[in-house]
Structure formats: C-alpha cells, structure tokens
Amino acid sequence: xxxxxxxxxxxxxxxxxxxRFVNTSEADYLHIDLMDGVFVPNITFGFPAIxxxxxxxxxxLDVHLMTVDPVKFIPQVRDCGATIMTxxxxxxxxxxxxxxxxxxxxxKVGVALNPGTPLCxxxxxxxxxxxIMLMAVNPGFGxxxxxxxxxxxxxxxxxxxxxxxxxAIIGVDGGVNAHTGGLLAHAGADMLIAGSYVFNAPDPLSxxxxxxxx
Length: 214
Description:
Layout: E1 2-5, H1 15-24, E2 30-35, H2 47-56, E3 61-66, H3 74-79, E4 82-88, H4 95-104, E5 108-113, E6 131-135, H5 149-164, E7 169-173, H6 178-187, E8 191-194, H7 196-199, H8 204-212
Parallel strand pairs: 1-8, 2-3, 3-4, 4-5, 5-6, 6-7, 7-8
C-alpha cells in the first residue's frame, strides 16, 4: 500500500519537523492540500510555504489543489517540485486539456472526485490519469468522519480501471485510519492519504507502518 501523510494535520508552527518525520518514515509521498477559500471553505498553504516544504522533503510531493481554475497554477506547482498534481474534476471546465497541461509541465496527473461526484464524470479520461483520488470526506477540513459509501465507490472504480485498461492507481483521502484503511485496501485502493491518524498518533511512525502493511 502506498502511503501519503497529509500535512493538513501537522503542526503548522513546526512544519519542518513534520517534514523531517515523514522523510524518516515508510511513507511513499508527502501530501499537500492547497485550498483557496472558494472551491472549499478554507485556506491553507501558499506557494512559498510549499517551496519551503519541498526544500526539506526527501519524499516526492503529491500536491492536491482544492481550488477553482487549478490550471492557472500549473507553473507554480511545477516550480515547487511536485511529482503529482491532483485537480478536481468539478473545478475544471475542460478536464482533458487540464490533464494534458499538467503532463506537459512534467508532472504526473491526479484527478480528484468529491463524495457526491459520480464515477461517470471521469469515464472519458480515466485512461489518461496516473492517479484517481476519491474524497472520503467533503473537502476543506481535516479530521472529518469517513463516508462509508466510499468503499463501494472504490470497488466500482477498480472495476472501471480494469475494464478500460487504465494504469491509474486509486487513492483515497479523508477519514483514513487502520479500520477504514483495511476496508479500502480490500476494496482495491492503492494509496491512502492520512492526516489526523498519522500526525495525532502517539507513535506516528507506527501509524504509517500499520497503514503500509494493510
């Protein structure tokens, strides 16, 4: 299982320490949520902060944009050193063009779907993505409860990927812990994005190990 600890749940007053911890862990990616206060009702990191995180990180960055018109930020995300840039299908009028632009900028392409967004929204582009990220909470805040319908949605997405021959991996973001992570692993998830479960754990390294071995 691929694991991406989410900095949204880290101590914002000591991000360098959080990044160093992730560097020493079994995590595969470092997940960064960029929110604009418009697409979601919150604001998080700006690009200067992401650049600082990137400079300290040894894990590849998975940058998740919860913003309107995310295409305009492609150059900034690239310049921050992101390996994966994930955008929301709900935020893009021309999702295929947006995905092409991300790939042309040298990054892998992630496409995220909110809990209420049906899988049919990505049928035509699923073979073009490197990552399909299912939101298991409504985006905008950390620490929310897991939406259980994400389990069946993961199973249906896995089936869609097999039927289309897509090489995309399935990521799930929100409410991930040992219990929900186990259910998601069984349903076909390939990558778990976890914030509170990792950074609020008594032993964060052990929490990552638990998820890693699901």
